[in-house]
């Protein structure tokens, strides 16, 4: 395909814009929901058209666990204002390699690993009104949650020396708590740069594959849950976001600043020329 065809295929329309459903207050660095939109979100909280519940993948951002956390982006996700995937190669690699990693885990421990993606379309905890998500695997015989993470090999030494990123630990511990599991494991597959080009061809036995096991800390999990619920109640009631970080949230701020489809398309085109958007013919 030519550039224009690839661009049109990748470009995603949106329904929420600055000046319509929300405005940006550059003095306070807050996104402010319009009164009508805010009332609609509150009225339908937990349902279609309302504030979404908290998903475990966003827990680290909500708790602001590290310098890469964005409570601002986490708030916006509650009403589906989300930056589209600009470069999908990392997500694609994870999706393709996750089954291979789960097979490797199964072969090592000699117990079956239930693939929870097979039994939950988008939310394994759909009956929970407050929290959601889909753990990658569950070992029933050991009451053990498994979460797979693919990352660059340059992170290997840091993971081994200091443990996986705290946001991954918080995410997986929440899964364990919600499932009444006693233990959980984050299994890291560490990839070379070239692996992202054709991950479906990768023999994972040629790469570092390491499990990081944890016991459920019930006190900590309950504390995380309460803090997240307090945060959720505060900002959904206010109809205002946490303050944004101009450096960390730079791309997302450009996205939410758009007033209409023309501005959004021009921004997406700029990103495509800058190489931020992966335009490639499958």
TrEMBL record:
InterPro entries: PDDEXK-like_dom_sf (IPR011604), Restrct_endonuc-II-like (IPR011335), YqaJ_viral_recombinase (IPR019080). Keywords: Plasmid. Residues 86-177 form the YqaJ viral recombinase domain. SUPFAM superfamilies: Restriction endonuclease-like. Gene3D superfamilies: 3.90.320.10. This is YqaJ-like viral recombinase domain. It comes from Metamycoplasma salivarium.
